[in-house]
Give the backbone structure.
Amino acid sequence: MITETLSAPVYQGQFGEFTINQSDRTSVIIYRTGLMVAALTFAIGSALVLFYNTPQTIAALTPLYICFSLALGVSLLTIHIYMVALHRLLQIVWAIGSISALVLALSTSQPLPITVYTQPLTLFGIGFTFVALTGIFFKEAFCFNRLETKALTAIVPVLLLGHLVGILPPAWERVLLAAWAILLIIFALRKVFQAIPPDIGDKSVFAHLKAQAKTKH
């Protein structure tokens, strides 16, 4: 239920009334911008791999991946998740994946994507970045019942684990990569046109959980 005041709409939450301020809206805009940048860089990188696979384009994948990972990190900083522990877990696994990518990039002379593709065991490190991404997909699928995020929640682990254990033919890997890139763009675009308040969630729940945490200390 929403009631209007002179300053801002007042929302009725599970544990009381709350309002949405400009800071809340800004955090959602930053979250969605991060998703869009991640989606665009991932789509460009995927297109280069699938259609313009040359030494020059492969070399461009590393900076594209850096942009993708940083944008994902920004989204993970500003995403609204009720469970603080889950929010922190997603940030931690992203950090593990980012540090692993940095170590791999500095320790090999070839482009990072080539290292990861030819040495699947590296996914035990850099793959944590995509665990965090899948966490976002799962959260969005659970909260908004989006078909593309449900599909991505399955596609990402199937492709990465399939490559890790070597059970996916190259043709299937290309199909899954293309589907991942397309669905990620669709997801990011749909977030642009989604109303902002649902992404903020019920702030009374956040306040209630915060109060509970204080009483335990």
Remarks:
- Confidence is low (pLDDT under 50) at residues 1-6.
- The radius of gyration is 19 Å.
- The chain is about 75% helix and 5% strand.
- The first helix runs from residue 22 to 51.
